[in-house]
């Protein structure tokens, strides 16, 4: 860990990745390079979408930024501190929410706060506020199995928000939802994001989702994942998915992805 005096980046940078690589070791004799040479700067409040073929290391990058795994090469910094362990400043939301079925919605939302040792009344109030932001106060006392898939994902977002994270790491959070619910959840996420001032790193396979959400789309190459290019999206929100600009962006992103997806398939066939 670098000392404060040798910090290479400003504490104003939300996330900085420098030369980040990850090699998974599968057994004793085979190393598996998932990510290589990733350089990425994320500004506070910025919405970044990560797009790339299956297996190119998008989830791996989120785990590294979350501090759940160590980098094999390079360094990651968040708000001026080297990332070495998980922190409540960086919340990870998965495709499948892992709500505790035996706890009520508000108890699920405040679970992280109980680990922090906050008193019950403060936890319940924090949970209420977070649930208000996702429009689920009425469901406070329900159990997860009484909720729809979309509602459960909103509870997962509320649970992350209750910790007041500076960075939200979202790994295909809406992939299991139907098309209409997904579109609603995108609108909902943009509202929550605007109010929270958090930076978001959002993994998806859907080009339309990237066009709807991102300030910048980071496109990865096929494995080992490197950044192929970064496409800024300078379009006011809410975005009209049928506008000529949205259409042109979808075409551009599809073309950028096509070569990498073909490469990923060719590699899989060769194995
Ligand atoms: N814990 C692990 N141990 C060993 N290998 C892993 C581990 N996690 C991921 N990998 C491997 O690293 C590579 C990148 O995986 P990762 O899940 O990050 O890719 P991805 O781009 O998120 O894929 P997808 O879009 O299919 O979810 C894959 O080949 C995967 O098998």
Automatic annotation (TrEMBL):
Q: Where is the ABC transporter domain?
A: 15-247
Keywords per UniProt: ATP-binding, Nucleotide-binding, Transport
| Molecular function, one GO term | ATP binding
The similarity annotation says:
Belongs to the ABC transporter superfamily.
Question: What is the protein name stated in its UniProt record?
Answer: ABC transporter ATP-binding protein
Q: Which SUPFAM superfamilies match?
A: P-loop containing nucleoside triphosphate hydrolases
Residues in a coiled coil are none
Q: Which SMART domains match?
A: AAA
Question: Superkingdom of the source?
Answer: Bacteria
Recorded hits in Pfam families, A to Z, give:
ABC_tran (PF00005)
What InterPro entries is this protein classified in?
AAA+_ATPase (IPR003593), ABC_transporter-like_ATP-bd (IPR003439), ABC_transporter-like_CS (IPR017871), ABC_transporter_ATP-bind (IPR050166), P-loop_NTPase (IPR027417)
Answer yes or no on keyword Nucleotidyltransferase: no
């Amino acid at each position: 860990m670098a000392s404060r005096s040798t910090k290479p980046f400003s504490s104003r940078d939300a996330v900085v990745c420098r030369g980040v690589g990850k090699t998974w070791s599968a057994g004793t004799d085979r190393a598996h390079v998932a990510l290589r040479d990733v350089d990425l700067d994320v500004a506070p409040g910025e919405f970044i979408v990560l797009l790339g073929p299956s297996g190119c290391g998008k989830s791996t990058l989120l785990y590294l930024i979350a501090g759940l795994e160590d980098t094999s090469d390079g360094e990651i910094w968040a708000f001026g501190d080297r990332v070495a362990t998980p922190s409540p400043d960086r919340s990870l939301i998965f495709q499948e929410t892992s709500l505790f079925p035996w706890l009520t919605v508000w108890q699920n939302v405040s679970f992280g706060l109980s680990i922090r040792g906050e008193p019950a009344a403060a936890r319940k109030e924090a949970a209420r506020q977070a649930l208000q932001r996702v429009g689920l106060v009425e469901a406070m006392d329900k159990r997860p199995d009484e909720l729809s898939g979309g509602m459960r994902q909103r509870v997962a977002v509320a649970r992350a928000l209750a910790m007041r994270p500076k960075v939200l790491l979202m790994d295909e959070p809406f992939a299991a939802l139907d098309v209409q619910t997904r579109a609603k959840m995108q609108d909902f996420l943009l509202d929550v994001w605007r109010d929270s001032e958090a930076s978001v790193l959002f993994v998806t396979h859907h080009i339309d989702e990237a066009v709807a959400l991102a300030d910048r789309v980071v496109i990865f190459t096929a494995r080992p994942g490197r950044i192929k290019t970064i496409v800024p999206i300078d379009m006011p929100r809410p975005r009209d998915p049928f506008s000529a600009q949205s259409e042109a962006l979808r075409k551009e992103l599809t073309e950028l992805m096509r070569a990498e997806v073909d490469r990923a398939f060719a590699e899989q066939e060769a194995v």
